[in-house]
Design a protein that fits this description.
Helix content is about 75%, strand content about 0%. It has about 575 residues and is mainly α.
Length: about 575
């Protein structure tokens, strides 16, 4: 019966069949719905060329993605009424889907000439944009009625056609429709690329309110948090982006970098390996801004170095071609292996050679600065970090390295000036407040140190070392109960660091809870079995408990350790 209708007695009225068709359509039973409409056309109480029913049959074929049959029905409707706007619009949409943009353009022009509706003009602009007919888009916009010029959809498409006025069109679209997701995303990217991070953050946060499932939004928010130094928040955003787009190697790579910033190296390694796997699966074309697998191998080499897996680090470096753009950086990392194995003289020799050859690798600045600090060449360290900070003014690592070198030189005024200058440029970086706390602590200004640490905790409560430092200062100020909460938080963030337990034992000792103190100092000794200071603390606590058995045990252990140290 498809394509024509034979009159027959169907045992029902056309209205009944049409109603049944709508019910089936709502159930997504499109073929059955089509059959009901054909039966409706076969009824005596309706014309067999009823335009609306024929057009609805076309719509059902459209939903089935049977576009050829759909066009047949729309053309049939147009034979009866040549200006039937719905049929023209649907045919135009099919041609657009099929990539027949010129055919779509011809139809939309005809449609707009006979039916000046906003949805038609939106489709008109959509087709012109696909055909890259940007001048025609601008000309068409000028001819529009004023009410149509206030369409956020049209203004957004114009932003693609006129780069010079792109930002204005996007702002106008958002003003008309604050939830215009595409415009918010593109405007946020413009701000981000211009370094206007607060404005970019505002766009992406607004977008996240209106569109919960935008992976690009979460990714950019992660990048912004990284630039602000809020690494744990960045990780949350990257994980959200990955949940929404799990095949993006770029998202996994940025997640790995964030993990390294908080020293979660196992997690960083897992993320980097997943990024490399996705990169290889995609043929190296997953993301247009990817630098190649060399970037993955370089990052993995650096992570393996932090994990003391030097063999794997060198294997990853060997995967980087000597002709690659980052070959010089790979050489720097090879010499940095000597730094990690405490062969400072060999590391210094190789890294200085790279420096003399004109390398300005960020890793070179980091490694050479560390070598000079280890060798107590504080002037040289300050010089390298100062040069690095000039090249990378937003790098906390170089600022902190310079502060460390200046503190070791006892140039506290210089260190304070450096940290305050950095804070002025990066007020939302939790790390800079930690650096200020270090300086105040060295100057024996404990209250100022505490104030800086509290600001750091406020900005990011998930940095274990900051929580530990806060607890230490609170202990120094004889506020052990407050210290306990910060030290317990540090342990929850990283339970593998012995000094966190030792400082918590100190807090319990100051609170005269010696049983609690003993519990935590034992844990510290389990993690660092040859730390004399911890054994001394355990002995002191056992004396306060008047536990003779424990005193004897720790006295014996202390003598044994001191004897071992003397023989070294």
């Amino acid at each position: 019966m498809e394509g024509h209708v034979e009159r027959a007695f169907n045992g029902g009225s056309a209205a009944e069949f049409i109603k049944k068709s709508f019910e089936l359509k709502n159930l997504k039973l499109y073929k059955e719905a089509i059959e009901m409409l054909y039966k409706a056309l076969g009824c005596d109480d309706i014309e067999d060329d009823n335009v609306e029913i024929v057009s609805q049959i076309g719509d059902l074929y459209f939903l089935l993605k049977n576009y050829d049959r759909a066009i047949e029905q729309y053309e049939r409707a147009l034979e009866v009424y040549q200006f039937h706007s719905h049929s023209l619009f649907q045919m135009c949409d099919i041609y657009f889907i099929q990539g027949s943009y010129e055919k779509a353009l011809s139809l939309i022009r005809e449609l707009c000439a006979n039916s000046r509706e906003l949805k038609n003009y939106v489709h008109y602009f959509k087709i012109l944009l696909k055909l890259e007919k940007h001048k025609q888009m601008l000309k068409l916009f000028e001819s529009l009625d004023e009410e149509f010029k206030k369409s956020d959809e049209i203004l957004y498409m114009l932003s693609k056609a006129d780069p010079e006025r792109k930002e204005k069109y996007l702002k106008d679209a958002i003003e008309l429709n604050p939830s215009c997701a595409d415009a918010l995303l593109d405007l946020g990217v413009i701000y981000f690329e211009a370094g206007e991070l607060e404005a970019a953050k505002g766009c992406f946060e607004n977008l996240s309110e209106y569109s919960k499932d935008c992976p690009q939004c979460s990714h950019y928010l992660g990048l912004i948090c990284e630039k602000f130094g809020n690494h744990t928040r960045a990780i949350e955003h990257f994980l959200r982006a990955i949940k929404l787009r799990p095949q993006s190697q770029k998202y996994f790579l940025d997640l790995a970098k964030s993990y390294t910033d908080i020293a979660w190296y196992e997690e960083a390694k897992t993320a980097a390996l997943e990024s490399l796997r996705l990169f290889k699966e995609s043929g190296g074309k997953d993301d247009k801004d990817d630098k190649g697998s060399y970037e993955h191998h370089f990052l993995l080499a650096w992570i393996c170095m932090q994990l003391k897996d030097f063999k794997s680090a060198l294997l990853n470096l060997d995967s980087i071609s000597s002709n690659a753009d980052m070959a010089d950086e790979a050489d720097v990392l090879r010499y940095s292996v000597f730094l990690e194995t405490s062969d400072f003289a060999k590391a210094k020799e190789g890294l200085e050679r790279c420096f003399e050859n004109g390398s300005s690798s960020p890793v070179l600045f980091s490694s050479l600065g560390r070598v000079y600090l280890e060798l107590k060449l504080f002037d040289d360290a300050a010089s390298v970090y100062s040069r690095a900070l000039s090249a990378y003014p937003s790098s906390f690592e170089y600022m902190d390295g310079l502060v460390t070198a200046l503190i070791d030189k006892k140039d506290y005024d210089g260190a304070l000036t450096c940290a305050k200058d950095f804070r002025e440029k990066n007020p939302k970086s939790p790390d800079v407040h930690r650096s200020l706390a270090r300086i105040f602590y060295r100057l024996d200004k404990k209250e100022e140190a505490l104030s800086s640490l509290e600001e750091s905790v406020k900005l990011d409560p998930n940095i274990a070392e900051v929580q530990y430092f806060t607890g230490l200062v609170l202990n120094d100020l004889n506020k052990p109960q407050k210290a306990q909460s910060h030290l317990l938080k540090a342990i929850s963030l990283d339970p593998s660091v012995s000094k966190y337990y030792a400082q918590l034992a100190r807090a319990y000792t100051l609170s005269e809870d010696f049983e609690g103190a003993l519990l935590f100092i034992k844990e510290a000794m389990t993690l660092s079995q040859h730390e004399v200071a911890y054994v001394k603390s355990a002995l002191d606590i056992s004396q306060k408990l008047n536990n003779k058995k424990l005193q004897k045990h720790y006295s014996s252990q202390l003598r044994r350790l001191e004897k071992i140290l003397k023989t070294r």
